[in-house]
Amino acid sequence: MSINNRYAPRTRRVDSWGQSRDRAVSPYRAPGWPKRQQLTEEQIHNFYAAYVEGLKANDKGFAWGHCPFHADRSPSFSVNLRTGRFECKSTSCGASGSDLVGFVTRLHGCSFAEAVDYVEGQL
User: CA gyration radius for the chain?
Assistant: First the structure.
């Protein structure tokens, strides 16, 4: 079975009763999407630096800056440069997520598919 739409690829799986089942694959895992392991620390830092004021990396693989989700005077926004995970350490905000797509979804209020397309265009 061949499907040309990259956001709806199918995989054929066999369930526990031996019957073949088609299953949709998440667009996040679709071919062509850069996986988190393929992104370098520099790419992750440059992406977040466009949105986070004063983002500075330290030697432990983290970067700190002012949170884009609330008014901030001291750096409270942390980014793990190895995985792309972000978190605001402020008690009033608490924004967190696991990757660049989650950051864009929360920042712009867009859908997952729109965020994937946006991140692909930026990288």
Answer: 18
Q: What DSSP string describes 38-74? A: GS-HHHHHHHHHTTSEEEEE-TTSEEEEE-TTS--SS
pTM listed for this prediction: 0.67
Please give the Cα distance from 79 to 63 (Å, whole number). 5
What digits encode the pLDDT tens for the residues 22-71?
A: 544 444 444 555 554 477 888 888 999 999 988 998 888 899 999 999 88
Spell out the domain ranges in the chain: 1-33, 34-122
Measured CA to CA in angstroms, residue 89 lies from 81, 92, 101 at distances of 16, 9, 20
Report pLDDT digits (tens) over 79-99.
998 888 899 988 888 888 888
Q: Give, in words, the CATH class of 34-122.
A: alpha beta
Query: Which residues are 77's β-sheet partners?
Result: 65, 88
C-alpha–C-alpha distance, residues 8 and 88, integer Å: 34
Distance of CA 1 to the CA centre of its chain: 30
